[in-house]
Each structure stands twice: as structure tokens, then as C-alpha cells.
Design goal:
The structure is a homodimer. Chain A is α+β, with helices and mostly antiparallel strands. Chain A folds into two domains: 24-278, L-amino peptidase D-ALA esterase/amidase (4-Layer Sandwich); 286-405, ArgJ beta chain, C-terminal domain (Ubiquitin-like (UB roll), Roll). Helix content of chain A is 31%, strand content 25%. In chain A, helix 6 (212-224) crosses helix 7 (259-278). Chain A is globular.
Chain lengths: 409, 409
């Protein structure tokens, strides 16, 4: 791995103080899966009764741990549960060996913690196509279990990093029926970095008491507007995993439709999603693309992603160029409904184009001034209907090429 | 525009000797639409009876000239016809002004050449969102018409360039029923370059005698496997146009299903398509992605484009890295059917992965040696069916960022 990459210029000032979540314990350790001299395995123990929801990559080449998690989501929550994550090896595209490695690791965790193997969820992230040296992980499980503690979330957030330039965490406490409820999450991800098949892994915990099916619905709905609304380079990992665990220890029951809780959950998920973008490979600008006036929300999302994924839009942002023609191009190619002569575009607060042509009041100097900032907002109104969507991305720079065109060593 | 960009390292050694095509005359002139000191308008006069077929961008924000051409394709071929093309201004996203400019130019060409305006096809390529200064073009039409000649195709190919680093031409002569038939084309395009909304424009001419509906079918079928099978950066222009004109002067009648003629047409189209890729912004490698074993040809095409458009695959190629994990990722994200455990991958002749795992005989040194070449071939077999497709692309380099992140000046 050599040098540690420089911290992203868009990184938050510091890792937040996440405190503890009742019913959740963390441990991490250096198992030498691939990296040397750093923790690379995280173990999480969840109290009996914990409900667990999950959303996963839709890749048709998804990894063995993802397939295993998907099979386990929705099972009984009577006993305790656990999450085991390694960095350095993605256990992806490893054939039958991959399934066997996942079996070995989750089975050993079940034994050490005396819980059902069906309640042990695992993730692997790192290089693909190489067999996971699972004994290096299972050899450390007793030591990991001995180190479990409620205070250990920060080193755990570091243990799951691959080539992230900073650890990612977020927490919100809300009052529900007069009682505090906490939602805390950690994440890793910064695009898909050589030499690793890096990916986005997210683990969120709450002490709220939520039925698994309600929790699953809340996670899926919020995922659509957070983790599914970010893009660094349009490439999709084989390992993307978001797990949401509700221990119920607070005793505060959350039913479907609880806007306070789901709002707080969305805030934590959006915060983590933005941190992943802010750690985008080579990123120097954080970009919000907001599309309104589409025929449907789905159409708005397609347009927003087309803009956010366009190499020409992303390089223009890197060059601080208010090149609205490329935005028009990206709308045109998206495949979703648009009428050229109804499109309006803003960069920040600067009105660039109105109803299909450059605004008579357009000031390129004002637009260029907005582009010089660190946070760029591109707003598009299609003038067709009420569909809307927002996505977040970063610019495309020499840094991205440097990171990804280096020979895998 | 400043300095002329350096000729692409992947450019052909020279512009081919295209000779003449019976019934086709060319002229070009410096009209100062935007560029100074170079020809920027091309006029083509086509003999009475010429059948004209066309395929166009599917962008929903396509330009006024594209909409005008689409309305005219399929009309009578009794009188003469003409094609007028300017570089420097795309006449796109220009509202009603764009339609009026196209009307003005095609109407003036009709007057000067004494042909029907419905038989005058136009293209514009260059910066978007600025009104086309159409009087600069119409003022030069008499001089252009006076300069028409069968020998002028080479300067015409130069006049339509924007930031292309070389002019593009191809020609094939085949014998049909003992008579020679000629197919010759010119093209421009090298991605979508700042400051221009550059595009792909292609004009192909033949002296064969072909009904317009047959010609249209042949063009559409061959377009699917040539110009629709190339990608530089996944971005789609608002102006893409391919026009195929058959003058009939050779007297050799071509019916539907003439494999000799359609094969020759495909060869010319593929040659021009490859030249566009070879002029891709910042390109240092010419890449063929061949997918076999898909459930359908359409599925194979989706997988091949997903690989060819992946920034991670393209940067790996730039770095001469046989990073097959990224190919697996791109297959997984494409949305078309794939079974992880049936996928096989080759780089050149080197077998990398077989049925979902790295080949036991895989030699990274051999794969790396292939990646050092100028022509890269990535072959994927999905093991599912007989669907197949091939696409061509280039690598993603610092040169692309340099070209596209420069401030528009």
C-alpha cells in the first residue's frame, strides 16, 4: 500500500464524537488479511432482539458475502446477532471458494459469540479475484471478542477503510414521546480504487425498537434519496452493503410512518453519503445536482444522474467552467423526457438559461464566481411537471486519473 | 482557438486519396463563422436523382439542423440536392432563432443552386447556445458554388473539423455485376471538446443506384455496428448526423440484400468510426471490447458499452494495467443478464478468467505485455447464449482532463 493518501480537501474537520449506542459493541484488530500495520477486521455484537435490515448492490457479479447477507435478512431476531467485516480482500469473483470462506468466517463468529450462524452478517472489501485467507480472520476471533466494547466505534470505522482518506461517522439523537432515541452510523467508500475493488459499506445502529419489516421499508425508502443518489464515477461495486440494526434497548417503539425517526435516519444516511462523495477519488468540488419540473421523480433522477455522471460536466466543474452547454447535452442524452425549449438552468443562484436559451440577464462572471467555490449547485428545471430529484457527486480531475491509472502493484 | 492541437498518436499515417465520386461536387471556404484563417463551411452538390438516407442523434435536446434534416429525409429525389455544413457554431439550444437560421441557410443554398429547399440538408457543429451568424455563410454561397468540383473532397473534410486533430476519410471500390461501384466518406468528431459542443458528422457518397428506402435500411443496419458501436466518453452530442447519398450515376442498381454492397458500406463506415475513436480526446490506446455468449445481441451490446464506458476500465487501460476485476465490475453493473460463475475474460490472447475465477494458467506478465501495445482487445464470454457485439473505445488519460477541464475562453 505504501504511502497513506493525503486527506481529501473536502473532508470534514474531524471524526465526530459518536458516543455509544445501547446494545451495540465494537472491536477491531490487525489480522493481516492484506494490509500490514493497521486494523483490518471489525466485529460488532448486537443485543438479543435486534432487528436488522439491509440493502445491497444490484450488481449481477456481487460477492459471496453480499449473497450470504441477502439470504439472512428478514430472519428471526430472537437471539443475538453480529457483523464481521474485513478490509483488504473483497472475496468477490472467487467462485465456490468465496462461498466457503464466507461460511467459515460466519460460522466461527457464531461459535465464538454463541449465536446462530443465520444471525452473523459479513462484508469483505478490497482486492477481488483472490481467495480470502479466512483463517487469518478466524484465528483472531477470540481476541476480537475479548475486546468488544461500546466505546470502540471509532477504531472500528478505521478498520473497514481501504483507500479512504478519512474515516466516516455520523450521529443524531431525537426525542420521541419524550424519550431520546439515537441513530449512529459509520461508512467506508471513496469510489472504486486501484488496487482494490473498493466499495461502499455502511453500518447504522439505533437503540429504537422497530419491527424488522418496518425497519426494512424505512431503510429502502431513505436509501433511494441518499446512498442511491450519490455517484463518484458511475461505476458500481460488487460489494455495496448498507445494514441497519435496531437493538430496541431504549424501549421506544417506532411504528411505520414515524416522521421524526425516519427524518433522523435520513439525516444520518445523507451525512454519510455526502462524506463518501467528499472522499471521491481526486475530488476537489462537492456538487449537488437538483432537477425539478420532470414528468416523474424517476425521470428527474435519471436526468440528475446523467448530469452527475457526465465526464464532460465533471471536467468542466474541475476547470471551474460554467459550461451549461454540457448540462444541456447530459439532459438530452439521458433518455428521460425533456423539451429543449422549456429547460432552465442555474449555477448556484445565477440564472444561466431560461426556456431553452441563454438568459438575457446571464452573467458569465457571476456563474464563474460560483464555480470557484468548493460547493457547486447545478439546478435544472424541465418545465414539464412536478417530478424532482437531487443527487450528489464530485468533479473529475487529474487526481482521479493518477489514482486509477497507476499500475496495480 | 490558439494553437492547433497535436495530431493524435493513434492517427492514420496520412489522409487517403479519395479520388472523385460521380455526381458529387465539393467546395469549401473561410466564412469566419467563428474560426479565423481556415475554411469553415463545406458545400456539397448532388446530381439530380440522388437518394439520401440519414441517421441522427437521439438526444432530446438535438439541434435545429438535425430536426430540419430529419423532416427532409425520405423526400423526392427528382431534382438535385445539396449538403451545407459549417463548423464553429452548433446552432443548438438557440430557440426559435435556431430554426430561422437553418431556414435562412438552406433557403439561400436552394436559390444559389436552383434546387428545392426540401432537398438542402444542413449541419452545424461548434459552440452551442450562441445564435448562428448565418449571414456570414449566405454571403459566401456564390463564391462557394463557383468553386464546386469533384476533386475537392479533401479540403471539404478539413472544413468540417472543429477540434479534431486530423481529417478523416475512407473509400472502397467494389465490383458488382462486373461494374465498379464506389463508396467514399468523410467524418469529423473526437468526443465533445471544450469550448465546442463538438459532435460526430459523417457524409458518405456512392455512385450506386439505390432506392431511398433500401438505402435508409442499409444505413440504419450498418450504423448499429459502426457509429453506434463507438464511444469516447459516453457523452452524446446534440448534433450527431450521418448522411448517405447515392447518386446513381454508375447505373449499377443495388437491391436490398446485396451483401457485396452493404459489406463495402460497412467497411467504409467502420473505418470512419474507428478514426473518430482514434481521435478521441487524450487517447493513447485503441480498444476493442468483444462480448460473446450473451443471451441476446442487445445484451452483449449493453455489456460491451458498460465496459467501454467505465472510467475505471479506461483508466486501467491508460495505466497499462490488466485489471480484469474492473471488467467484472462493469459486467455486473450493466443491467444485462450475466452469471458471475460462467464469465470468462481474455486480454488479447491471454486467458485471464475462466468460469468466474482467475484462470489457473493466468500469467499477469503476459497480460501486462498485451496492455503495453497500442491496440488493446478485451474479450468477454458470458457462457449464456449466442448473443454477441463488439464496440470500440479509447483510454481515459490526463490528456482528456487537460482538454476538457480548461476554462472556456
Amino acid at each position: 500500500m505504501g504511502d497513506t493518501p493525503a486527506r481529501s480537501p473536502l473532508a470534514p474537520a474531524c471524526f465526530p464524537d459518536l458516543g455509544t449506542i445501547d446494545g451495540v459493541e465494537f472491536a477491531s484488530i490487525a489480522a493481516g488479511v492484506k494490509y500490514a500495520g493497521r486494523d483490518d477486521v471489525m466485529l460488532v455484537r448486537l443485543a438479543p432482539g435486534t432487528a436488522i435490515a439491509g440493502v445491497f448492490t444490484r450488481s449481477s457479479t456481487r460477492s459471496a458475502p453480499v449473497l450470504d447477507c441477502q439470504a439472512k435478512i428478514g430472519g428471526t431476531s430472537d437471539g443475538g446477532a453480529a457483523i464481521i467485516v474485513n478490509s483488504g480482500n473483497a472475496n468477490a469473483f472467487t467462485g465456490r471458494n468465496g462461498t466457503e470462506a464466507t461460511e467459515a468466517v460466519t460460522g466461527a463468529v457464531a461459535d465464538v459469540l454463541a449465536i446462530a450462524q443465520s444471525r452473523v452478517f459479513s462484508s469483505s472489501t478490497g482486492v477481488i479475484g483472490e481467495p480470502l485467507p479466512h483463517a487469518r480472520i478466524t484465528d483472531k476471533l477470540s481476541a476480537l471478542a475479548a475486546g468488544l466494547g461500546g466505546d470502540n466505534i471509532k477504531p472500528a470505522a478505521h478498520a473497514i477503510m481501504t483507500t479512504d482518506t478519512f474515516a466516516k461517522g455520523a450521529t443524531v439523537t431525537v426525542e420521541i414521546d419524550g424519550n431520546p432515541v439515537k441513530i449512529t452510523g459509520i461508512a467506508k467508500g471513496s469510489g472504486m480504487i486501484a488496487p482494490d475493488m473498493a466499495t461502499m459499506l455502511v453500518y447504522i445502529f439505533t437503540d429504537a425498537l422497530v419491527d424488522q419489516t418496518v425497519l426494512q421499508d424505512m431503510l429502502a425508502a431513505n436509501n433511494a434519496v441518499t446512498f442511491n443518489a450519490i455517484t463518484v464515477d458511475s461505476d458500481t461495486s460488487t460489494s455495496d452493503t448498507v445494514l441497519l440494526s435496531a437493538t430496541g434497548i431504549s424501549g421506544v417503539r417506532i411504528d411505520a410512518g414515524n416522521a421524526t425517526f425516519t427524518g433522523a435516519l435520513q439525516a444520518v444516511m445523507r451525512d454519510l453519503a455526502h462524506q463518501v462523495v467528499r472522499d471521491g477519488e481526486g475530488a476537489t468540488k462537492f456538487v449537488e445536482v437538483a432537477v425539478t419540473g420532470a414528468t416523474t421523480d424517476r425521470g428527474a433522477h435519471i436526468h440528475a444522474l446523467s448530469i452527475a455522471n457526465s465526464p464532460l460536466v465533471k471536467t468542466a466543474i474541475a476547470g471551474e467552467d460554467p459550461n451549461w452547454g454540457r448540462v444541456v447535452m447530459a439532459i438530452g442524452k439521458s433518455g428521460a423526457p425533456a423539451d429543449r425549449d422549456l429547460i432552465s438552468i442555474r449555477f448556484g443562484d445565477v440564472v444561466v438559461a431560461v426556456k431553452g436559451w441563454v438568459s438575457p440577464d446571464y452573467s458569465e462572471a457571476a456563474a464563474a464566481a460560483h464555480m470557484k467555490g468548493e460547493n457547486i449547485v447545478i439546478s435544472v428545471d424541465l418545465g414539464l411537471g412536478t417530478g424532482h430529484a437531487t443527487v450528489w457527486t464530485c468533479d473529475l480531475t487529474h487526481g482521479y486519473i493518477e489514482i486509477n491509472a497507476d499500475y496495480r502493484s
